Amino acid sequence: MKQKLFTSIGLMSGTSMDGVDISIIQSDGQYQFYNILDEYFEYDVDLQEELIGLRNLVVNQNDLLKNSKELGNLERKITVFHAEKINNILSEYKKEIDLIGFHGQTIFHDPQKKISKQLGDGKLLSQLLKKKVVYDFRQKDIENQGQGAPLTPIFHHLLSKIINEKFKTGFPIGFINIGGITNLTNIKGISSNFEDNITAFDIGPGNCLIDDWVRKNSNKKYDENGNISKAGKIDQLITNQIIDNFNIESYSKSLDVKDFDNSFARGLSFENGCSTITNFTGYLIAKGIESTGNNSKIKYLICGGGRKNIALIDSIKNNLYNKNNFTLDNIDEYGFNGDFIESQAFGYLAIRSFLNLPISFPNTTGCIKPTGGGKLVKNY
């Protein structure tokens, strides 16, 4: 018997802080999924600079209090921006929306201190749009001793079912999302027993080091298609030094953009610095794949903005030691737009949260038990 289908809007504004992905989906919160619409709305330059500047100021718990007024003002701006863009979409899409999954803009993440701060006022968004809103997705997981991330693996599990049915990919299959941070999901097979079939990890930086270098050294926001990196030359001496002096101690902990810096490239030319940083990023992602891949042959589908950086993808492949064990494919080749997997996911997570279904599991975030999702608010 088919379950009720909910229509949900999923919102995602990632660590690149460049804008908001908005998706409309339909799902029963379990095994049915239909993608209706995907759109991207870019932040204006001033808003992006304000976000990045304030994130750089908040390096510990005390900074959240010290900058509370500025954070409150920026949170309102972010929420109003989301509301305006959703209204733009709903002026064309006339059908009823049941829920909105509002991730917000991460400004500080420290699960050891049980804090994950996303800018985004769910109550205000509900009031502005006259819709039920689910927000603050990470806190319950953190309170259950989880890392609060990654949260998309349960959605990856659903996508693996759909992709296998259409393309006969078989299992195991995995997903690699290259956003600001790179996270990875391994799926052994399809089952309602998620704890045994899904494992997930943050495995390294994604676009964060590259984007930061490009923004600080040019008038560009990112390295489109990896062209800047391809124009440069990797400084192998610096690469060897940073590899010797840096390692990710455990893949059981979630990562934040503030866990990494690109100061090792200081003094290099713009192109050579970008090339060297891209290679280091690719090296860390490759080691993460090898360390979490369970030594079995597996096909990985790559999503997120980083999948378009050809230099980065080449670096990952070149840095894999056992290349025969891993296939890296672009998820777009399997009928999904890799730019919107996370926004679709938060639409799906909103439905699961509304139905009191878990969104995180011991093998995905390290929580002590399967854990429900965000806070539901109806403020109208």
Structure, explained:
The two termini are 34 Å apart. 39% of the residues lie in helices and 22% in strands. It is globular and about 60 Å long. Strand 1 (6-13) and strand 2 form a beta hairpin. Strands 1, 2, 3, 4, 5, 6 and 12 form a seven-stranded mixed beta sheet that branches. The chain is α/β, with parallel strands linked by helices. It folds into two domains: 6-147 and 340-358 and 365-377, 2-Layer Sandwich (Nucleotidyltransferase, domain 5), CATH 3.30.420; 153-334, 2-Layer Sandwich (Nucleotidyltransferase, domain 5).
Properties at a glance:
seven-stranded mixed β-sheet, 380 residues, Nucleotidyltransferase, domain 5, 14 helices, 22% strand, alpha/beta, globular, five-stranded mixed β-sheet
In short:
With 380 residues, the chain is α/β, with parallel strands linked by helices. It contains 14 helices and twelve strands. It folds into two domains: 6-147 and 340-358 and 365-377, Nucleotidyltransferase, domain 5; 153-334, ATPase, nucleotide binding domain (Nucleotidyltransferase, domain 5), CATH 3.30.420.
Task: List unreliable stretches of 5+ residues.
Answer: none
- Structural category: alpha/beta
Provide the gyration radius in Å.
20 Å
Name given to the CATH architecture of the largest domain: 2-Layer Sandwich
What is the typical, i.e. mean, pLDDT? 94
CATH superfamily of the largest domain, by name, is: ATPase, nucleotide binding domain
What gap, in angstroms, lies between the N and C termini?
A: 34 Å
Beta-strand segment tally: 12
- The tally of domains stands at 2
Here the CATH topology of the largest domain equals: Nucleotidyltransferase, domain 5
Secondary-structure element order, N to C: EEEHHHEEHEHHEEHEHHHHEHEHHE
Helix content: 25-40%
- Please work out how many helical segments DSSP would assign: 14
Strand content: 15-25%
Name the overall outline.
globular
Question: According to CATH, what is the class of the largest domain?
Answer: Alpha Beta
Biggest sheet layout: 7 strands, mixed
